[in-house]
Amino acid sequence: MDTPASSMSRRSLLRMIGTVAGSATMYQAMSALGFAADSPYQGPIDLSGAPRGASVIVLGAGVAGMTAAIELRDAGYEVQVLEYNSRAGGRNWTLRGGDRYTELGGLTQECRFDQDLYINPGPWRIPYHHRGILSYAKRLRVPLEPFFQVNYNAYLHSSKAFGGKPQRFREIKADYQGHVAELLAKATRQNELDAAVSGEDREKLLESLRHWGALDKNLRYASSDAASARRGWKKKPGGGASARPIPSEPLELPHILNSGLWEGVSAGDEYDMQTSLFQPVGGMGRIGEAFGRELGPLIRYNAKVIDIHQDERQVTVTYEDTESPGTAQKATADWCVCTIPLPILAQIPLNVGTPLASAIASVPYASAVKVGLQFKRRFWEEDEHIYGGITYTDLPITNIGYPNTGFFSGGKGVLLGAYIWGLNAMEFTSMAPEERIAKALDYGSQIHPQYRTEFDNGMAVAWHRSPFAMGCFGMWSTASRAAHYDDLCRIDNRVVLAGEHASFLGGWQEGGVTSALDAIGRLHERAVAQGDKA
Amino acid sequence: MSGCPSVRRLALAATGVLAAAGLLGTFAVRADDSAFTSKAGLEAQSGAAIYGNICQGCHMPQGQGAVGAGHYPALAGDPKLISWEYAALTVLRGRNGMPSFALPAGQVDETRAVHLSDAQIADVVNYVRQHFGNHYKQLITAEQVAALPHPSPEPTP
Asked: Which residues in chain A are contacts of B107 at CB distance < 8 A?
């Protein structure tokens, strides 16, 4: 077998490693978007000494708004919440059988999923270090279960490599790592790394490379028991007379490099994606529903805010009952916590200073689309032994997410059949829901041919067509953050904004929770300074 | 949203980051499909295709707009379209939740935005001003769009 090393210079190897380890570059960019930052959650908030009779109106019953409402209520404030939808949760939302969803433009989908099956159009996973949202789930008694980010038996797929045949994550990871270890070992033995390692360290490095890459005695990555113990066997070990295992043959490095599949190997290495992650039993929406039950009659549903006005005494919010349009009603309070998504808030008359007004108008919302597909049987488990986790592909669907629950249940199952961003998301948004589902089936069947015969029904949610969010989440650039973020967070007289858009955890529920706690902490200080109401 | 999650969330979807680093691999190019435009394929799209694949996601197939908690403005019979500069500047610079379609390369990758050329912006503005009950005869050119203020490149950190 031709050794992969012969086809690569050391320089190109190092450049390639830089690309992958180049998580540094990626991390930097992700941080700018607010994706890789840690949660600033510091435990339960202390809002003691609330002024007697002080009141707060909260706009939006999503995760941020309801976090603020619960804490302010418990601190003694008089709280009311206005919510556009007829349910609590906002983007924390699960679609189940029997649900109806009408998107902007008027197209309505009826969810026909079987009992206990669901899709989360919005958030679907919670990293273990998002301690804010996890603490509310615990406090509200929402049971959690594991979410599998990485599944070694799921696929990495490129339509342009390996004849379009999906590759098991396990094999690509083992082979990529093994070949790179072999190359580094070779360079080390040829004293090419003397400047970096020498003497005793050199021997330690070689031993570590053997261990890390599953190399053989000669520091080669080749067909062996050690390599097969990572990538899987040609014939698996078992019991009995004919049980002797047969090692498998690794893929060659140039094939892996040219496939681009190495890009998927580090998917679970990001801080936000590291084990353990969680999901609520029964769908992410269980958290929003629990918040809603906790707040009960404090939330006024079907309330569309049409004007927000503050003066030196109070905040007056004018809203319409969406069930009887044209009938404006007013609600007043001393203070306002506004969590309305910015594309909507930008269209509502609101008398705040220019800095906040410009910030509100400066954050476009991401385009994202999710498609849920119900199949007549769980073929990914029955035929392909994939239990939870995610397949990544270069096709526009980008992800196939397998349900992380209900394993071996024998009945139907619902997959996340597409999770799309950017240009392709805009294109999917431009289609009617049934076309989005048809496209997701077309693409997904390139990975799972069973799609063709097993498809039952589906739901497709395009976030730019969401009547209550008009986008997936606030898409800050480094430049727009530098120009507007501080202004967006600053209290303007009696109004403060909260939500994932006012966080460095964009798109994450933890951004909503921590933003709300920070906002009400500052608002509380201001209220205390003003003292009791007459 | 991972939240969206995911945002982040998606090693394979982070192609923009690799492109910015000059390391665009085979993975960054989307599979070809007649109905879908890859970033490379997008450059060949005309005004009608851009409207149908991008704009109508929000402004709707007949330019009728939509109303929910907020609204997407109707383009059908919109009197503001008498000003081509208004229409072109909106596409160039964005407005409220609507993204800019002319961000500098670095910001396009960072925000998963979509970049249209001046010629394409002229083309889609012409398309909108001559459809959905709009009958503005004057066609604008890439040069006219080029003369308008574009979003500035972000300051170097």
From this structure: 477-479
